[in-house]
Design brief:
- It comes from Aurantimonas coralicida.
- This protein is mainly α and 114 residues long.
- The protein has a single domain, classed as Domain of unknown function DUF4159 (Rossmann fold), CATH 3.40.50.
- A two-stranded antiparallel ribbon has the order 1-2.
Length: 114
């Protein structure tokens, strides 16, 4: 349950032009020696995210505002979820992992309807 799944929208998967591929996020492992590492900056934000769902192609439009690439499904909600995935990624990059804080749990549970 990565912070990326709840950075702004609560999402269980991250579709793009394609669906079904995992979103792989870099895991930052703590150093045993506690040494300072330059790559550890940025509030624990992962610097690498990999998926085969092709998010950018789902967002791409031409000068007239028409989509450049088709999605796997003709359902327009697939593109909507691709935009939401992009918003979550941007919010995660800009704000870090603050949503992992326990102070946000009640609000997240309320949004989930639990």
């Amino acid at each position: 349950d990565h912070v990326l799944t709840k950075a702004f929208y609560i999402m269980s998967d991250f579709p793009g032009r394609h669906t079904g591929s995992e979103l792989w996020v870099e895991s930052l492992v703590r150093d045993a020696d506690g040494a300072s590492r330059p790559a550890r900056g940025g509030d624990g934000v992962s610097s690498i995210m990999i998926t085969a769902n092709d998010l950018a192609s789902a967002w791409a439009v031409d000068a007239q505002g028409l989509f450049l690439f088709p999605t796997d499904s003709s359902d327009p909600s697939q593109r909507e979820y691709a935009y939401r995935a992009g918003v979550n990624i941007v919010m995660y990059v800009l704000t870090g992992n603050y949503k992992a804080d326990q102070v946000h749990v009640p609000a997240l549970l309320e949004r989930l309807g639990q």
